[in-house]
Amino acid sequence: MELNLKEIFTAFMVLFAVIDIIGNIPIIIDLRKKAGHIQSEKASIIAGVILILFLFVGKNILSLIGIGVNSFAVAGAFILFFIALEMILGITLYKEDENSAMTASVFPLAFPLIAGPGSLTTLLSLRAEFRVENIIVAVILNVIIIYVVLKTSARIERLIGQNGINIIRKIFGVILLAIAVKLFAHNIKALFV
């Protein structure tokens, strides 16, 4: 096992940007209001497990069911697109279950918001460039930051207030929409080449 600080830092920064937990604060606050409570530990651990598992078996699972990485990324672009529409337009496309406090921690928070198609396809790209143990360390560091943000989301909400949240929500909704369009455009081209 050979840990390389440069690889860890680069993989950490790439995953941090793709997961965008800071940009997802408005969604987290919104989910907490809908569900009443978010289990920060559970959401963080599940997201971390999904990311690490996908690092090892992701490409095999996708090829086993006949789905290419590009098709997976296009599907992920649609999910991000609809989440962005919710943020920008203030509408609800995701329907809550009876026990939404329990399920909100897993879906849509752990998957697809944190461990979503964007971060999963990024992991496959990182695996081609970096050693697996360095990527795992980068994932664990991101999971720690995710946990801290989830745990302190109520304080963050009090600090910036409802108007601040609404502004951040709209801004990051547009950014998320742009990411969805870029992810879609990049991968739809690769499907027809």
What does this structure look like?
The protein is built from 8 helices and no strands. With 193 residues, the protein is mainly alpha-helical. It starts with a helix and ends with a helix. It is globular, with a radius of gyration of 17 Å. The protein has helices at 5-19, 25-35, 40-64, 69-89, 100-114, 117-129, 132-151, 153-191. The chain is 82% helix and 0% strand.
Q: Which descriptors would you attach to this protein?
A:
8 helices; about 190 residues; mainly alpha
Q: Per the principal axes of the C-alpha atoms, what is the gross shape?
A: globular
Residue windows where pLDDT falls under 50 for at least 5 positions: none
| Strand content range | under 5%
Which series of helices and strands comes N to C?
Answer: HHHHHHHH
- Largest sheet properties: none
Count of alpha/pi helices: 8
Please give the number of β-strands.
0
Distance between the termini: 38 Å
Mean pLDDT: 84
Radius of gyration: 17 Å
- The proportion of residues forming helix, as a percent range, comes to over 70%
The computed structural class is mainly alpha
Helix and strand layout, with pairings?
Elements: H1 5-19, H2 25-35, H3 40-64, H4 69-89, H5 100-114, H6 117-129, H7 132-151, H8 153-191
Helix pairs in contact: 1-6, 1-7, 2-5, 2-8, 3-5, 3-6, 3-7, 4-6, 4-8
Would you kindly provide a brief summary of this structure?
This protein is mostly helical.
